[in-house]
Amino acid sequence: MLLARLLVAPGRVVSTDRLIDDLWGEVLPANPTNTLQTVVSRLRRAVGTGLVVHRRPGYLLDVSLDAVDSGRFTELAGHARRATDPGRQAALLAEALGLWRGEAFAGFADEPFAATASATLDEQRLVVWEDYAEARLRLGDHAALAGELRELVEQHPLRERLRAARLRALHHAGRTTEALDDYRRLRVLLRDELGLEPGAELTALHQQLLRGDAPAPPTPRPPIPLPTPATELIGRDGAVANVRTLLGTHRLVTLTGPGGVGKTRLALDVARGVDEMRLVELAGLPRETTVDGLADVAAAALDIRDGGGPSAPVERLADALRDRRLLLVMDNCEHVVEPVAALVPHLLRAPGVRVLTTSREPLGVSGEHLWEVPTLDVPAPGTPPADVLRSGAVRLFAARAAAASPGFGLSADNAETVATICRRVDGIPLAIELAAARVRVLGTAELADRLSDRFAVLTGGPRDAPLRQRTLRAVLDWSWELLTAAERTVLRRLSIVADGCTLDAAETVCSANGVQGSQVLDLLARLVDRSLVVVAHTTDGPRYRLLESVSAYCEQQLDPGERDQLRHIHAMYYTSLAEEAASHLCGPDQQRWLRRLDTETGNLRHALGDDRLAPRLTRALTWYWFLRGRLTEARRATAAASEAVTAAWHAGFRLLTGEPTDSHAAPHLRDAVTDPREHAMAGWFLGYAATRFGEMPVGETLIGTALAEFTDLDDRWGVAAALSVRAVQRHVRGDLNESTMDARRSRALFDETGDRWGQVQAGAVLGRLSEIAGDYPAATAWHREGAELAEELGLWPEVSTRWSELGRIALLEGDHIRADELHERGRALAAEHGDTAGQEFAEVGLALSARRRGRFTEAETLLRPWLAWNRQFEADNGAALILAELGFAAEQRGDAEAALDLHAQGLAAAQRTGDPRAVALAMEGLAGAHLLTGQPQRANDLLHAATRLRESTGAPLPPGERGDVDRIQATLHILKDTAQQSADHELQEYR
Fold first, then answer.
1. H helix or E strand, kind and range, residue 952
2. Which protein family is named in the record (predicted)?
3. 538 phi, psi to nearest 5 deg
4. pTM to 2 decimals?
5. Does domain 483-558 have CATH number 1.10.10.10?
6. pLDDT tens-digit readout, 798-851
7. CB contact at 8 A, 425 and 549
8. What residues contact residue 166 under an 8 Å CB cut-off, 6+ apart?
9. Which of 3.20.20.190, 3.40.50.300, 1.10.150.20, 3.90.440.10 is the CATH number of 237-372?
């Protein structure tokens, strides 16, 4: 089904949301995004990884049109229509029809996503059959054709062109009586079922049959030459094919889109695939042009003389086209859209006429089919240089820059800069061409820097281009001048919004001073029609945004007073939104509000620039930043805090980001907070941060107090959060039974409140406790559930950690390959989201695997940078583990001195943590080092002490972690046996 969906528009990106909706409809899987990724992976295995490409905001099938039967079919049909020789035409059409091996989208034709495409292909097939039949008639192949068309006519009895071809074939095969009888049956069918008579063309053919002089169809007129562009059309192959397909089923198609997007170029390329076409260029007409004046312009383009007479120009033009078969391209309609809309219905009274218009807004007449010309696809930030050139925008830039600056070429050094330029100009072809023309004097790096003043840079278009297309400002001036005063007001006020907004936000920001809130929706709709506002439909409703160039232009239309007022209104709106969201981020609506704030990230950052509202907004966003792992952003935003609550959170964020912080000051920061709930929450957060990266005793004190305060407040969420951290603390201290009880109670409370972040936290502790107990299936289940819950919420640092936890379990089970795969997955996700702690956890796991397989240098290379990173924190947990691993690697390499030093440091760090299992691990490492220096008794004593310490925690060393201990004990046994054998030998000698 995924393959079928991508084949609806091969080469074009289908958004992730659209794919999920089309594949599952209302019955969504538990994790739609993850499930879609799984299906994509399966499809890649089936058809090839390089064909199914991820490109924001979704996926595309990266194939050329001629690699797909439907594309090849359309291409052959187009070649045939341009051919003038009937033999060549028939051969091409026969090849096209030969590609059909069943129904279009067989098995999926009834799916909503495929219904239109399937019907379009079926219609194209019939049109090609009609063309094929007429070519065969011109070749004199009458008898065979009459037989071949019989079944097709019976399946489609109301297609008059197909029927006419069979009537002619019967007549020329000497079967005129059958032809007349066939016509009679059609006439009865039309009258009984539709109350209609046959069309004029079929009626005229009937009269010719009665007279016995029905001719074969005339040879098509040679196509009328169109203006030939001097440059190649780049990045539009799929668009050309799609529009030609639409013209096969719709007689009026309007290409819309913003200025400079390439509507005219696309229309001309589409028209080149049609037998008879004419271009009516409207850009030069005055805005006051009447419908009669427009009809005169069209008649002149069609070489139609008025011949005098009393009829109006519109009627004369419609009459002259009555028997014509042609495609009429009406270009640049936006400034005369009303007379065009009045004229086109008259033109379409002629059954053989099709109209293709280009306009920055729809005509708004019956039967019109809109096709919005997209901007060229641009590479996402961070796209590898090798993949950048696949982008249509980059290919266009490279071609035009090479033409303007001989010697220019795309390389690994400039690929990202070129991609940035293309993104900054929104992928609009005209803007890309104007930018490329500046490479000769600026170079790519300087050009990218100067795009902040794009209207001064993007000038100097070709002298033979219309004035409105020679600069970016002229393109936008043309659109601006066509707007009403109210439309201009809404458009310029929207420039204050970052990355789009909802209708509610637009009504708030754009109303007042001449525009009523109730008017905004209608004005927005008109601006969308004029291709100046882009609307995207999301799960939270439509979002309205401006392209970057349009936004920059509109912002220049604001006077300073209006700009300041709008910024404050904007900040008030988004502060209120953030405060409302904060009240829903701890509970069952967490996912929806996280997604809402994610969408509004640009607006929220913009609103933080309002000094009057920044303190409120910062406080409202702290928990969101924490959940999303945006700790550095949170630390920066809270740095200037004057409020006690925000100052406490700032200290916590400093601890979590590794900035030197005295965790002993945390209780004083908490005590400065007066509101009881805020006091408990600040204490909890500082206790959480101290537990992870500060002094454990400080964290234990803070969490104990917060637990009591949440209990007094009857705050179940707060109690659950405090218990989840206390479970971690008790786990570290070796109080495993108490840790288990806290974690289970925490999980139960989080289940009651519906907070999935909390479920992940409690589940993580239960997973680690199961791992310590050697119950690897249970540990796997907890961590896998945590990964799924975190992925649903988009908590990517948590997802990364859960994958690495699963990697640890695979390591304990002895599956090193699987362990490396899971740790690599965790590392990649952590690196992608800037999660340093997650990256450390994953790379330490990879080092554990490498060391256990004897790859000591690789393990040490992975571990040493993270030892330095861990030593910046007050907490010694991470450093203790890394020192132990480095010590074991040194011992196994035979470096006794380094092993002793590292394990001695590790023991000191482990004792500072208060974690008995960490102390036991360091003692086991020292045992191996002493064994290496020839002190087996000391080694044996240390092993026994470590075993007793582990047993005191109620968690002896599980089988998966016994590798180093078993190795050391085995060596001790060998030494013991050897010593005994030596003693026995000496005794025998004495005797």
1. helix 936-952
2. Belongs to the AfsR/DnrI/RedD regulatory family.
3. -115, 175
4. 0.70
5. yes
6. 999 999 999 999 999 999 999 999 999 999 989 888 888 899 999 999 999 999
7. yes
8. 133, 145, 146, 149, 150, 153, 179, 182
9. 3.40.50.300
